[in-house]
Each structure stands twice: as C-alpha cells, then as structure tokens.
Amino acid sequence: MSRSSSKRSTIAEIASKAGVSIPTVSRVLNNRPDVAPETRRKVEQVIKESGFIRSRVPNALRKESSGIVDIIVPDLAAAYSVEIVRGVEEVLERTELRLAISLTHNSIQFEQRWLTKVIDGSTDGAILVLARGQSERLDELRRHRIPFVVVDHRGGLGVDVPSVGATNWSGGRAATEYLLSLGHRQIAVIGGSSTLRCSIDRIAGYRSALEERGIPVNPAYIRPGDFIPETGYEQTCALLDLPEPPTAIFAGSDGQAMGVYSALQARGIKIPDDMSVIGFDDIPVASLVTPTLTTVRQPLVEMGRVATTMLLRLIAEEPLDSMRVELTTALVVRESCAPWTPRNS
C-alpha cells in the first residue's frame, strides 16, 4: 500500500487487510477503549505497515463509531420493506455493525421522533426507505454529519443525495408492452401515492407504451393507490363499475395485485380468462398465488445490499462511484395474463 494513498481509501483497505470492520478501525484511530487488545494490536500493525498517516484533527471534532446502522421503513407488513431489510442484513452480517430498524408508518411525526433520537451520535449512518426528498430531515442529517442513503423516495431528490432505486419507467413500459402484445387495448393501471417517484415513473412508462402504439390514454383507467391490497381491491371495483371496464389491470405493486385478485374473485371474474393482471416487485407471494402472478421483478434485496455498501463507503469517508444507482427491472411471465378475446355481447 502506497504511503501516498489518501485516508479515504486507506481506512477501508486497513479494515480489509486486518479482517475487521471499518468502524473497528475508526475506534482504534480514535483511541476508543472498546476494542479487544488482540484486535487493536492487529489493526495497529496493519496501520504501521501501510504507512497510514493519522489525521491531525482533534479527536473531539471527529465522529466516533456507535456500531449501529439505522434503517427507517414505513412498516414491515409489506414484503417490499422486508426484502430490502434482508439485503441490508446480508451486508452488515460481514461487519461488526448492528442494525436498528425504525418504522415511520408514513408519518412525518414518526420520522421526526426517529431523527431526534439519532442526531446525538447514536448511529453511524442511516438507510431511509421511501423517505421524503428535499426534506428538513435530510438537511438535519447532513448538519449532524450523519451519512445516509435513500432507497426510493417521495418527491424530488437533489443530485447530491445518495440514493438507490430501480428502472421503474422501463418496468412500467415493459408491463404495458406485454399486455399490448397480447392484444389488450383497454389497459388500466393502479399506481401508488402521487408523491412517490417510483409510482410516477411506472405510470409514465405505461403512458409511453400506449402513446407509442397510438392508443389514447383513458384518464379513467389511471387509478391512485398506496401499494397495498386495500387500494388494489377498491380501485378494481371502481374500474369494474365503469361503463367500459378494462380487459387488463397493471397493479403498481404485487401487494396491490393481491387486492385486484380479491376484487375479481368477489365479482366472479376469472384470471386470466376474463381479466389479465400484472404486478410489480416479484415478492415471494407472486409465485404462490393461483394463478401465479406475472410481474415486473424489482431487485429489492439487491437494492438493500447496494444501499448498505454505499453507506459503508460514506461512513469510511470514501467517495461514491455515483450518487444515484438504478438497478434493472425484468418482466417475469407467469399465468395471470392471457391474449385478449372479444367479450360476449
């Protein structure tokens, strides 16, 4: 290792060579007492051999490690959040960091309470799922020098906000194109909250596919939702009550698609014979329901992994290769869609 290596890259290299976590190296550098003697000797030896130059910034001005990474999610009832947490845990298992999970219940007040708890330095960094972009909370994290990464987001994010998402526009377009390829022209979409960037992008992809085929976008076929079964059920009932119901429904999430299934079953409408249904996410239930759900796979576990890897680099004060990472979505064809056939008059 060169003596000219920057501190930003050397901390991570020291941790790797010593076989310890980045926070452990940080604790050794800060002369923290909570490091086992043998571990301290190993790290100190690697530091000595590497030619690492310790920072001359007084210890009082340097953030000490708490050994904790926070993840804040709306809830754990939805498989969406659980799958992301799985990815986070997979990465943190290889470190000495512990994971703390907090739920917002989509409440600004809960987000603020969480922030109050962590700004005193009780976290090394945070992963925020479906957080509000350009919010005071993000600014507060910056002011207190708490590294963070956003997974999906509400509203807009600045170019300086580290974030992870998926190719939602492409996914929405792929779902719609598949239904079009089956002959469907009356295709409805049930989205998520209008503040969610992922929902906005999926509907934009849906619109793009229709417009490219010269098919007018019917405003009555674009329904709001919250990515939960209840709104899938409610909006499907509303769609079925239209003078001219759709022949296919694109649900903005697999959870929402479960509500679509329930509403169609309650009306005696068979999937896919009478109505084609396609979802988004590819959570485990998608392959377990009958008929199995055609959906757009969103790499949720990988999103958690990538967000955590980015966060660890920020904690180590390493530069990121990119502030925004978008992972690829892919159409997964199963049994819930069929070619369109004319309805009996």
Report on this structure.
With 345 residues, the chain is α/β, with parallel strands linked by helices. It has three domains: 7-61, Orthogonal Bundle (434 Repressor (Amino-terminal Domain)), CATH 1.10.260; 68-165 and 300-327, 3-Layer(aba) Sandwich (Rossmann fold), CATH 3.40.50.2300; 168-298, Rossmann fold (3-Layer(aba) Sandwich), CATH 3.40.50.2300. Helix content is 40%, strand content 17%. The protein has helices at 7-18, 22-29, 37-50, 79-92, 108-118, 136-143, 168-181, 197-212, 229-240, 254-266, 300-315; strands spanning 68-73, 98-103, 125-132, 148-154, 163-166, 187-190, 222-223, 248-251, 276-281, 294-297, 324-327, 330-332. Strands 2-1-3-4-5-11 form a six-stranded parallel β-sheet, with helices on both faces. Helix 1 crosses helix 2 (22-29), helix 4 (79-92) packs across helix 11 (300-315) and helix 7 packs parallel to helix 8. The radius of gyration is 24 Å and the shape is elongated.
Question: Can you describe this structure in just a few lines?
Answer:
This protein is of the alpha/beta class and 345 residues long.
Give the key terms.
single chain, 345 residues, alpha/beta, 434 Repressor (Amino-terminal Domain), Rossmann fold, 11 helices, 40% helix, 17% strand
Helices and strands, with pairings:
Layout: H1 7-18, H2 22-29, H3 37-50, E1 68-73, H4 79-92, E2 98-103, H5 108-118, E3 125-132, H6 136-143, E4 148-154, E5 163-166, H7 168-181, E6 187-190, H8 197-212, E7 222-223, H9 229-240, E8 248-251, H10 254-266, E9 276-281, E10 294-297, H11 300-315, E11 324-327, E12 330-332
Parallel strand pairs: 1-2, 1-3, 3-4, 4-5, 5-11, 6-7, 6-8, 8-9, 9-10
Antiparallel strand pairs: 10-12
Helix pairs in contact: 1-2, 1-3, 4-11, 7-8, 9-10
